[in-house]
Amino acid sequence: MLVAGTTSDAGKSVVTAGICRWLYRRGVTVAPFKAQNMSNNSAVVIGPDGRGGEIGRAQAMQAAACGVAPDLRFNPVLLKPGSDLSSQVVLLGEAVADLTAGNYRELRPRLARTAYDALAELRERYDVVICEGAGSPAEINLRDTDYVNLGLARQAGLPTIVVGDIDRGGVFASMFGTVALLDAADQALVAGFVINKFRGDRKLLRPGLDMLAAVTGRPTYGVLPWHLDLWLDAEDSLAYGRVLGRPTPPRGTEWLDVAVVRLPRISNATDVEALATEPGVRVRLTVEPAEIADADLVVLPGSKSTVEDLAWLRRSGLADAVRAHVRHGRPLLGICGGFQMLGRAVHDEVESGRGTVDGLGLLPIEITFDRRKTVTRSHGTAIAHGSVPVTGYEIHHGYVSAAEPGLSPLLTYADGRPEGAVLGPVSGTHWHGAFEGDEFRRRFLAEAARVAGRAGFRVAPDTSFADVRERTLDLLGDLVEEHLDTVALWRLIESGPPADLPFVPPGAPPAPKSATG
């Protein structure tokens, strides 16, 4: 089955994960699939050849919902935007080209063939594959080259449901319009709708649901409620000023306020979600220098374009705010691209082609970009705040090419090699995912609170990030079981699109007042 959406961030990823969890709990072997994802939030998967590759982080989350290990075939094409005009193409986990409007038609047959082959292999291996679309299936200017929405559904004969976000408004118009803009062959695959993020009394929707059924000839399979606990791995919702999660009261007498700089080309910002699971830790994404000034801990996250985002930091005044934060003795953390920005210089002939540019000068290191991309899972020990095991993953072209002798590392690899750096209140690492380790996260936050002067902050001894993620996935499964017509969904999965779906011409007449769902 294909889960499409009226827009980006309509809820395709979470509905796909919820359906996957529901099927997994029924004993069905199930896998997620997204033919093409455009995202700088990725996860590392170790391929059959032992090498690391990348897939969209949403597909890694969906794999967890299915109770299976991530597979490169779950997201065979990943586009990682480096600018408004180009994206790095990651094909079955490996960076192979840069994509622009000029070379898309040349690359498209290879990308589509790879996606179709990957889906065929998954269908052979699993009982069910739940596919996620991208953007909207009614992007009619792109339909002739589409292989991720109804182009995929047409090629594989997939029944399709369309998810709409009612919280944005206009959900009935967008659902009708989505169907009405499709040609007859595409419409024949669209079986019905799911409304997402509803707040209030569901009975108020009945007239709209009845009319939508009358003018499209298609049912709404259910209405999913808005739920505040669905925030992990929400890659399309990293909005300015947004507080992550639902901050719970501190165990001590003080909060720890964390400001995460929302870089224009932010990458793997989900790193900071683990911090937000801790009681008394308030994590905000920001582009405001004033919020940097008020924060206890500042985080520079990953970036797909380190040099370009470093220039933006300077133009926006955030670079000065970050330096002032450090001058006041308060802690600063850089992760991957954010770590690279902290050094004295960045030598980049690969990503930006800008050559040598000045870093922020907060760590005595230099970064050089290599054409070979490091994509791997890493294991080692966190030593800066007490020796504890830590795991993570790496996705980067830059590496530390020079460092001041005696500089303390933040971590060490299993073979003893140093990783990252610590100098006074400033620390950084190339490792993503390290803060999902409970003991390392607690020790880091306790030290950050001490340095920031938050003597009343206390870390919780019992927070488990893995448990929080599992509860989120189970919640998604619960919502699907409680609010969607799972009997009808199972019938679609078993039998395909209904044979009697009517064609909906643009401008279909309104339903009669007596219409019933």
Q: How would you describe the overall organization of this protein?
A:
By secondary structure, the chain is α/β, with parallel strands linked by helices. It has 15 helices and 26 strands. The chain folds into two domains: 254 residues, 3-Layer(aba) Sandwich (Rossmann fold), CATH 3.40.50.300; 204 residues, Class I glutamine amidotransferase (GATase) domain (Rossmann fold). Helix 1 runs parallel beside helix 2. It is globular and about 75 Å long. The relative contact order is 0.13. The C terminus is likely disordered.
What topology emerges from the helices and strands here?
Layout: E1 2-5, H1 12-25, E2 30-33, E3 36-38, E4 42-46, E5 52-56, H2 57-66, E6 77-81, E7 86-91, E8 94-100, H3 104-125, E9 128-132, H4 150-156, E10 160-165, H5 171-180, H6 184-187, E11 190-198, H7 206-216, E12 220-225, E13 256-261, E14 266-267, H8 273-276, E15 281-286, H9 289-294, E16 297-300, E17 302-303, H10 306-316, H11 318-327, E18 332-335, H12 337-341, E19 345-348, E20 355-358, E21 365-382, E22 388-403, E23 411-413, E24 418-419, E25 421-423, E26 426-429, H13 438-452, H14 465-483, H15 486-495
Parallel strand pairs: 1-9, 1-10, 2-9, 3-6, 10-11, 11-12, 13-15, 13-16, 16-18, 18-26, 19-21
Antiparallel strand pairs: 4-5, 6-7, 7-8, 14-17, 19-20, 21-22, 21-23, 23-24, 25-26
Helix pairs in contact: 1-2, 1-14, 5-7
